[in-house]
TrEMBL record:
Main subcellular location: cytoplasm
Official protein name in the record: Hepatic and glial cell adhesion molecule
Source organism: Molossus molossus
GO cellular component, one term: endomembrane system
Domain Ig-like: 148-207
Keywords associated with the record: Cytoplasm, Disulfide bond, Glycoprotein, Immunoglobulin domain, Membrane, Signal, Transmembrane, Transmembrane helix
Keyword Transmembrane in annotation: yes
Length: 233
C-alpha cells in the first residue's frame, strides 16, 4: 500500500513540473530581431556635396526589410520609407532627386543643404522578426571656409613700447575656429600675446624688434592667422 502511495505521489509531482518545463523551454528559445551596426556616429558634410549615412543590418529572415529614415526634430521628419530599396509613397519635395537607398539600409544624401544637418534615425523591421532594429547617425553640414585675411589695426611705425592688433577675418564659411601661429607653432596667451576669447583677434603688447615681421604673413619669421579646417592667411 505504501509503495502504491509513493508511486502516485511521484506521478503527481511529474505532472506539476511538466508545465514549468514547457514554460522554461519557451522562455529560453532565442528571440529573433534585426541588428543594425554602423562604423560611424558623426559625419561631416559640405554644402552641395554628398554624405553617406552608412549602416549594416543582419537578420535570420530572408524577407525584404522595411526601412524608415527620419530626421529627428521636435516633430520628426520622415526622409524616406522603403521595402528593400523600393521607395514607399511620395518623397517630400526637398528630398526629391537627392536620396538613394542601398540594400544594406544605408542612405546617400546628395546636394547637401544647411537644413540637412541633424540627427538621423533609421528603423529596419522584417515580418518574421520580433524586434525592430534602430540606429542613429549625426550629420553636420558646413559652408567651406574662404581664405582668411589678417588685418592690421595700424600701419604707422610703432615704438618698442607700443602695442598693435591683428584681426583675422573671412568672407564665407560656417563654424570657424581660429589659431594663430608663429614659426609654425600655435600661440597661447602670455604676458605679451593676448588672444580674444574666440582667438579671432591677437594683440601684441610691448612690441619687440622680432615682432615687426608679423606685418607680412607668410614670409620669414612671421605670424599667421588660421581659421577653420582649410583656411590660412
Amino acid at each position: 500500500m505504501k509503495r502504491e502511495r509513493g508511486a502516485l505521489s511521484r506521478a503527481f509531482s511529474v505532472l506539476r513540473l511538466t508545465p514549468f518545463v514547457y514554460l522554461l523551454l519557451i522562455q529560453t528559445e532565442p528571440l529573433q530581431g534585426v541588428n543594425i551596426t554602423s562604423q560611424v556616429r558623426l559625419i561631416h558634410g559640405t554644402v552641395g556635396k554628398s554624405a553617406l549615412l552608412s549602416v549594416q543590418y543582419s537578420s535570420t529572415s530572408s524577407d525584404k526589410p522595411v526601412v524608415k529614415w527620419q530626421l529627428k526634430r521636435d516633430k520628426p521628419v520622415t526622409v524616406v520609407q522603403s521595402i528593400g530599396t523600393e521607395v514607399i509613397g511620395t518623397l517630400r519635395p526637398d528630398y526629391r532627386d537627392r536620396i538613394r537607398l542601398f540594400e544594406n539600409g544605408s542612405l546617400l544624401l546628395s546636394d547637401l543643404q544647411l537644413t540637412d544637418e541633424g540627427t538621423y534615425e533609421v528603423e529596419i523591421s522584417i515580418t518574421d522578426d520580433t524586434f525592430t532594429g534602430e540606429k542613429t547617425i549625426n550629420l553636420t553640414v558646413d559652408v567651406p571656409i574662404s581664405r582668411p585675411q589678417v588685418l592690421v589695426a595700424s600701419t604707422t611705425v610703432l615704438e618698442l613700447s607700443e602695442a598693435f592688433t591683428l584681426n583675422c577675418s573671412h568672407e564665407n564659411g560656417t563654424k570657424p575656429s581660429y589659431t594663430w601661429l608663429k614659426d609654425g607653432k600655435p600661440l597661447l596667451n602670455d604676458s605679451r600675446m593676448l588672444l580674444s576669447p574666440n582667438q579671432k583677434v591677437l594683440t601684441i603688447t610691448r612690441v619687440l624688434m622680432e615682432a615687426r615681421e608679423a606685418r607680412e604673413p607668410g614670409e620669414g619669421r612671421s605670424l599667421q592667422g588660421r581659421t577653420g579646417r582649410t583656411g590660412l592667411a
